[in-house]
Amino acid sequence: MDAVHAKQFVRDLIEAEFSAGFPFVRRLPSVHVWKTLVYVENLRPDERDVLFDVLAERGSGALQTDLDMRRYVERQKELVAHHAYQRFCIEKMHPWPWKYADPSFLRQQLDGWRQSVARAPEPVPPPDFSPVPLEIAEAADPPVMARAPEIRKEIKVVFLRRFGAKPTTVGAGVWNYLGECNRRPFTLSVDYGVRFCQMRYGIAVGRFPARQPQLGSTWEDMLGLGSHGDLNFVCQHNLSQTVALLGEMVEKLVTLRENVMTEERPSRGT
Q: What is the pTM of this model?
């Protein structure tokens, strides 16, 4: 797939995810992703169109079969300097409405406000979670964060059952899970030792050495809506859903690679 078709392919994926209300990406337990989705949603249509064009080109490199690495690196530098991308990087982490946040996260914020009120000499206004009603946050249970051993155990069980994947330690907190999806090999890499979040993951489609450091790519980062596979709100109440979502991610990326290869086969025979 050449650069033009790869960019359009990713652009169509971004548009489809946005038009459907982010049905897949919004399920990721990531504060960064929640903020990013609201930022994108609040842009004017013309601003969003420019940003989506930049994000599509940035995320299309993995699909290109005619990749000129030198030209690709230079183009990425140009895209990173684009005014729409610069604004995106700066403003997406500003305080935004918590439309996509886990209610348990909102409860955590609410409890933090209550503690600050008890210590503050002056009245502190309550947090604004709109469009989410305050009652939703009040009714949610406080989060209990999942620890690395608990996450490793869940991934080990689920990926062995679903993909026949067995864990291999790479070192420094990184584990690889080599399995097969639709008879295509893949590696899920998870870094449990990364700072400022609970885990960082990536998926590489293909067969690689078991101990090769291989973070690979993610669906949300290909669309420009992620944070390098960082997940920072994996809790007891959403652990099983999060690991199941990683399985869906594997299936989406493997299917995507198969679709790209299918498109390429006719052109190679002409």
A: 0.89
